């Protein structure tokens, strides 16, 4: 995501795992901050960063949806077989 942001002409981009990783020095003289996550990341860390920023004066949040994903992945045959064996269910 950092590389994508920088390639899209962002002035700076940082990878953080949680709100506590954000350094206030990064935000000196900054007027706009984008917060995003990868598809495999739960929404909670993003919300935590937004909450933390709101507690530090950045409470004007605008949600911008650039893509909506609707892809669902089925468990592999091996995993389905293991789950059936564990639960005692047979495939119909």
TrEMBL record:
Instruction: Name the UniProt key words of this record, in alphabetical order.
Output: 4Fe-4S, Iron, Iron-sulfur, Metal-binding
- Which Gene3D superfamilies does the record cross-reference, listed alphabetically? 4-hydroxy-3-methylbut-2-enyl diphosphate reductase, catalytic domain
Q: Does the keyword 4Fe-4S apply?
A: yes
Q: Which residues form a coiled coil?
A: none
Q: From the record, give the transmembrane residue ranges.
A: none
| UniProt name for this protein | 4-hydroxy-3-methylbut-2-enyl diphosphate reductase
Instruction: Tell whether Disulfide bond is among the UniProt keywords.
Output: no
Example GO biological process: isopentenyl diphosphate biosynthetic process, methylerythritol 4-phosphate pathway
Molecular function GO labels: 4 iron, 4 sulfur cluster binding; 4-hydroxy-3-methylbut-2-enyl diphosphate reductase activity; metal ion binding
Q: Which organism is it from?
A: Streptomyces griseoluteus
Q: Which InterPro entries does this chain map to?
A: LytB/IspH (IPR003451)
Q: Which cofactor does it need?
A: [4Fe-4S] cluster
Query: Domain of life, per the record?
Result: Bacteria
């Amino acid at each position: 995501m950092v590389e994508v942001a920088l390639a899209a002409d962002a002035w700076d981009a940082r990878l953080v795992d949680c709100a506590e990783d954000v350094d206030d020095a990064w935000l000196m003289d900054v007027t706009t901050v984008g917060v995003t996550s990868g598809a495999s990341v739960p929404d909670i860390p993003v919300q935590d960063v937004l909450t933390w920023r709101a507690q530090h004066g950045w409470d004007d949040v605008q949600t911008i949806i650039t893509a909506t994903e609707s892809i669902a992945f089925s468990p592999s045959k091996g995993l389905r077989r293991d789950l059936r064996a564990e639960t005692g269910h047979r495939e119909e």
